[in-house]
Amino acid sequence: MNDLQLLALVRKDNGLAFQEIYNRYWRVLYNSAYQKLQSAPLAEEMVQETFLNLYVKRDTVQVSDSLSPYLHSVLKNKVIDEIRKQISSKKYQDTLSVQPPVTAISSHDLLEEKEVKEKIIEFSETLPKRCREVFLMKQQDLSNKMIAEMLQISEKTVEGHISYARKLLRSYMTELYLYSLIFLISYIPY
């Protein structure tokens, strides 16, 4: 049976058809996840979540002739989310181990840092979707090569997105600085 026939049976809650799809794709999906995550338990979890996604969305999944592109796309997104989660967790743990005691940080410093982060997030929302993805991943200290692999684009394309985002960020921050300066000058008493 081909994938479309199996999917039609899965939509009718045929467990054997779902098992056939699982047997057909689990190894290649596992290898792909393991290659990116370098962890057998995480790779297994990502593959299981990919098949769970297929089962939950079985009535709405649209495929032309093969489930492979759909399954790989779902897996890719799950792997990217996992890597982002790991990076965030690692950065958080790193900051905890390096940060001075809370009493040494003034509330003014915290407010400035929060404002800068908000402005960068605000700025990132102005970028085109793919450029925003690359920009935010670069903010997480991922290499251009890793970003290219995760998004399945060339390293040159990653470099182009980063260059474009940095150019726009400089312009955005300069404009923001000028507006802030004008605001301050207009409120300074003579």
UniProtKB/TrEMBL annotation:
<protein>
    <submittedName>
        <fullName>Sigma-70 family RNA polymerase sigma factor</fullName>
    </submittedName>
</protein>
<dbReference type="Pfam" id="PF04542">
    <property type="entry name" value="Sigma70_r2"/>
</dbReference>
<dbReference type="InterPro" id="IPR007627">
    <property type="entry name" value="RNA_pol_sigma70_r2"/>
</dbReference>
<dbReference type="InterPro" id="IPR039425">
    <property type="entry name" value="RNA_pol_sigma-70-like"/>
</dbReference>
<feature type="domain" description="RNA polymerase sigma factor 70 region 4 type 2">
    <location>
        <begin position="119"/>
        <end position="169"/>
    </location>
</feature>
<feature type="domain" description="RNA polymerase sigma-70 region 2">
    <location>
        <begin position="21"/>
        <end position="86"/>
    </location>
</feature>
<keyword id="KW-0804">Transcription</keyword>
<keyword id="KW-0805">Transcription regulation</keyword>
<comment type="similarity">
    <text>Belongs to the sigma-70 factor family. ECF subfamily.</text>
</comment>
<dbReference type="InterPro" id="IPR036388">
    <property type="entry name" value="WH-like_DNA-bd_sf"/>
</dbReference>
<dbReference type="InterPro" id="IPR013249">
    <property type="entry name" value="RNA_pol_sigma70_r4_t2"/>
</dbReference>
<dbReference type="InterPro" id="IPR014284">
    <property type="entry name" value="RNA_pol_sigma-70_dom"/>
</dbReference>
<dbReference type="Pfam" id="PF08281">
    <property type="entry name" value="Sigma70_r4_2"/>
</dbReference>
<dbReference type="InterPro" id="IPR013324">
    <property type="entry name" value="RNA_pol_sigma_r3/r4-like"/>
</dbReference>
<keyword id="KW-0731">Sigma factor</keyword>
<dbReference type="InterPro" id="IPR013325">
    <property type="entry name" value="RNA_pol_sigma_r2"/>
</dbReference>
